[in-house]
Design brief:
The chain is an alpha+beta fold and 269 residues long. It is built from eight helices and twelve strands.
Length: 269
């Protein structure tokens, strides 16, 4: 499996991409830095990925232990940088730290990928033979809830940890995505099989959030092929930054995709 990776920031000039994405021989991951609180979100997301272990994180206790072993050098450097920005920034960093989500997948054999997630970045497995999509997230409606976030200084809320296994074969493709793209992918899959996901889609719409508008837009589309128009299209675009940005802009303009940073990493079989 050779990974394809792309991460882009919001489409206007001057915006910092707070996402980070990484691909190693047998591991892919995305971290979404949460800039709504704290400082240095883009640095924390990158730091988490740069320090990911080579073997799977299998429990909340293992995640907590790993963070405990890496946070201090990051914190000390950011503390010095915050001092240079002035007392207001320093106090904000002391009070809030840095926040990010994390999703990672390790390919542990030719038949198995092990994943972990914390927050609303999502791991996926699609099989071209069965045409079934598996993912690590709870439900479409839960994208409206505040995500669990890893903080560089605060105790980890272990209830935010999830992990699992994708059973893979020659027809599998495994990938990870940050929240806006993940919502789009799950939404389009459920709309493509609306009889099976009628209740889940209605529950998500009933939250009356911005995501309701994306679901309504997806439902209004003429018949589409999820595999061809969503999965294969994203796979093809990810190899070319210009094409990927063009595709993202089209989806935003169609009312199918939230305005955000976008990160996507594929393992290809």
């Amino acid at each position: 499996m050779k990974p394809k990776i792309l991460s882009i920031g919001k489409q206007e000039d001057g915006c910092i991409n707070e996402d980070a994405a990484i691909a190693r021989d047998n591991m892919i991951a995305v971290s979404d830095g949460a800039g709504g609180g704290g400082l240095f979100a883009e640095r924390w997301s990158r730091y988490l990925l740069d320090n990911l272990p080579e073997s799977p994180i299998l429990s909340a206790e293992e995640l907590d232990l790993w963070i405990d072993g890496i946070w201090e050098p990051y914190y000390n450097q950011c503390e010095e940088d915050a001092k240079m920005l002035g007392n207001m920034s320093l106090n904000k960093f002391y009070d809030e730290g840095s926040f990010a989500t994390l999703v990672a997948v390790w390919k542990t054999s030719d038949a198995k990928c092990e994943w972990m997630s914390y927050g609303d970045s999502v791991a996926f497995h699609y099989n071209y033979a069965t045409h079934k999509l598996e993912h690590s997230f709870s439900s479409l409606a839960d994208f409206d809830k505040p995500p669990y976030l890893i903080n560089c200084k605060d105790e980890l809320n272990k209830s935010g940890f999830k992990n699992g296994v994708f059973e893979i074969d020659k027809d599998s493709v495994v990938f990870v995505a940050s929240d806006a793209l993940a919502h789009y992918i799950i939404m389009m899959y459920e709309v493509s099989q609306i009889d099976s996901y009628f209740d889940e889609l209605n529950k998500a719409e009933s939250n009356h959030s911005k995501n309701e508008n994306y679901i309504k837009a997806a439902k209004s589309f003429s018949k589409f092929d999820f595999e061809k128009d969503i999965i294969i299209k994203l796979q093809n675009c990810i190899g070319n930054g210009i094409n990927f940005k063009r595709h993202i802009k089209k989806l935003v303009n169609q009312g199918l995709l939230a305005h955000d940073d976008y990160s996507l990493v594929f393992f290809n079989s």
